[in-house]
Amino acid sequence: xxxxxxxxxxxxxxxxxxxxxxxxxxxxxxxxxxxxxxxxxxxxxxxxxxxxxxxxxxxxxxxxxxxxxxxxxxxxxxxxxxxxxxxxxxxxxxxxxxxxxxxxxxxxxxxxxxxxxxxxxxxxxxxxxxxxxxxxxxxxxxxxxxxxxxxxxxxxxxxxxxxxxxxxxxxxxxxxxxxxxxxxxxxxxxxxxxxxxxxxxxxxxxxxxxxxxxxxxxxxxxxxxxxxxxxxxxxxxxxxxxxxxxxxxxxxxxxxxxxxxxxxxxxxxxxxxxxxxxxxxxxxxxxxxxxxxxxxxxxxxxxxxxxxxxxxxxxxxxxxxxxxxxxxxxxxxxxxxxxxxxxxxxxxxxxxxxxxxxxxxxxxxxxxxxxxxxxxxxxxxxxxxxxxxxxxxxxxxxxxxxxxxxxxxxxxxxxxxxxxxxxxxxxxxxxxxxxxxxxxxxxxxxxxxxxxxxxxxxxxx
Length: 461
What we know:
Elements: H1 8-26, E1 43-48, E2 53-57, H2 64-71, H3 94-102, E3 103-112, E4 115-121, E5 136-139, E6 150-157, H4 159-164, H5 168-185, H6 187-191, E7 195-198, E8 201-202, E9 209-212, E10 224-230, E11 233-241, H7 248-252, H8 254-261, E12 265-270, E13 273-279, E14 301-309, H9 329-351, H10 356-363, E15 367-370, H11 371-379, E16 390-392, E17 395-398, H12 420-431, H13 440-457
Parallel strand pairs: 1-7, 12-14
Antiparallel strand pairs: 1-2, 2-6, 3-4, 3-6, 4-5, 7-8, 9-15, 10-11, 10-17, 11-14, 12-13, 16-17
Helix pairs in contact: 1-3
């Protein structure tokens, strides 16, 4: 039951979470938010074969007292609830669940405070219901884990997992998928200096940025920003354009849009750990409360919301840390702000639809700014004296003055599908050339213009 509700890649991410929590315990006196390279110098290396799984880090190791009272127990002891550190380990099942998901036995070697010890989880340990004690063995070899850290080696790989890693092609595919998951989940952490390798391949971050025009003397491209503190949970939010709204020709180019759409949507972060990446569902406000459902015309819109707390139980994340806890009261309030900001940019995209050449004058004047700079601006809102932020319902908010098209009027999108041969029939009728390079959206627009002109020519009849 412990391993049934978690995917293999998520179990491995749980082990990485433990490494990062070790860094936070090591640097408990350092402000994580104001330190740009907070994780610099720390690493986690993963090695996978069809017969074994190894993860090794230099993140401080497991104190022996923690091992005895918490790390190898099923569940979290009451004493651990008082850490007051912004970790992501909550339920006391991460390491154990990951080990049992992958294999039937393991050896955990750790070095903490200059002392090295080892815990062995033997094969078939659970068959004896009277004896679930794992002995701690002290090690004299001081050459192991010299930087201080932990090495977990899992063997007797479960049959379903062994099949997943059973050939070079399968293992290579799993490695690439795992790297992609790590990139998404630890993008902020990798940008802050942490190093992760999978079978010798270094994992690079996927940075998030938004377009910002520094010239605010008139209407300009700026993000929607918001910050608020709910008891011990601090929230920072930014949403805006990361690329100009697409033209009808862009939307017709489906192959390019598939690649671009993967960069749009909401990213939700809890204590530096990404729990939703570029989400475009109702979970993050799409298709609710006046916000349209995601469509390819919105591929230029991106947002991020960051939750931080020294009590991780109050963060709105599920046990697998790969989803939103929709029962969270804090998230319900923040989601209203997410929809508020999102609607500003879906409306902007709709207003400029069909006039993209004019819109480009504004989006090209803006430059790409990293989310770190924007969130720093949000977090300093209370001290900000420029008047950019205003106080609203206990938080601080900055609403951009976005440009409006000339002679701005209400617009609606006309969208329909027709067979390619039927479209070519119309192209041939219009241009006497069945292979004319006009796009389908332009064909529809030209047909509308013809009928519109005819309708006005009959107004005096």
